[in-house]
Amino acid sequence: MRAYTYIEKGRFGFTEKPEPSLAADTDAIVRVTLTSVCTSDLHIKHGSVPRAIPGITVGHEAVGVVLAVGSAVRKVRPGDRVTVNVETFCGECFFCKRGYVNNCASHDGGWAIGCRIDGTQAPLVRVPYADNGLDKIPDGVSDEQALFTGDILSTGYWAAKISEISQDDTVLVLGAGPTGICALQCVLLYSPSRAIVCEKDPLRRAFAKKLYPQALVCAPEEVTEICRSLPRGGADRVIEAAGADDTFSLAWQCARPNAVVSVVALYDKPQILPLPDMYGKNLVFKTGGVDGCDCAEILRLIADGRIDVSPLITHTFGFDDIEKAYDVFENKRDGVIKTAVKI
Q1: Where do the domains of the chain lie, and which CATH numbers do they carry?
Q2: Residue 255 C-alpha from the chain's centroid
Q3: Distant-in-sequence, close-in-space partners of 221: CB < 8 Å, separation ≥ 6
Q4: pTM of the model
Q5: C-beta of residue 192 within 8 angstroms of C-beta of residue 239
Q6: How wide is the angle at C-alpha 155 spanned by C-alphas 35 and 180, nearest 5°?
Q7: For residue 200, what are the CA distances in angstroms to 114, 203, 234, 245?
Q8: Dihedral over alpha carbons 90, 95, 101, 102 (to 10 degrees)
Q9: Which residues, other chains included, contact 300 with Cβ-Cβ below 8 Å and sequence gap of 6+?
């Protein structure tokens, strides 16, 4: 089969590969119907993910139909429509039992699909620990509505969850890109008193204002003063979903004393934690990769109409045109937010 592959640093391309087969009794084979290009794919392309293995099929955001399952798989069956989780996790180790599935101790635990094992930008994908890594799509939920469940929507849900949001809080989301918008939708589930979104791109600011009129949308040059003018001198909760050169600094500067700052962005280079400058703010930082173990709940919220991130899909391509999908997404052409690729 033809698969879109990480060939070497700076280069992806089509290669021919054998169709995947079941390698363990906990595996499933999924026929991919819709996949997407993620910023994490671009990080692999540019060499920012050292654990990524050249030669792997890239891609980890996908929905599809189960074709085959191993003898130990109980939750999905051939013919089921499913979302694919960005993480694979055994469900039995110290970390999994506590919900820290990004740190699963299994050999294939954590972010493996499209990074260390073949991913979803191909007609077929093998999913280890299928009972954990696949979730059935409810009737009435489209592929487009479900597409981001296993990655950026899980990230947004997790970011809001770990931020400990109350209805009295002002929540600042840095970034109105795909992950930031997913985080904003999940923040709004908690009904905070105020939601603020900071984004440098005017087209993305307009996109956020149109979809989420209940949020205050501002530019980076405005956000510090807006937060300083808040009753408690800053945002109660800050979610850093942008990953730009200065957004980590903005995150802690815009937070009030004793605030929670949740950093879910993936950076291309190290960030500085200037402890002398922030001394006395007594901030709580929560950082790292998503623990994507709430997909079933996310799909229920989608089915109930409480979450809908399908408007993020601004451009759709066929598999033959996946290189164009990458070009449009990476270079932010034509007002793109997210690209979807039909296999």
Answers
A1: 2-151+291-342 (3.90.180.10), 155-287 (3.40.50.720)
A2: 23
A3: none
A4: 0.95
A5: no
A6: 90
A7: 30, 9, 20, 12
A8: -120
A9: 138
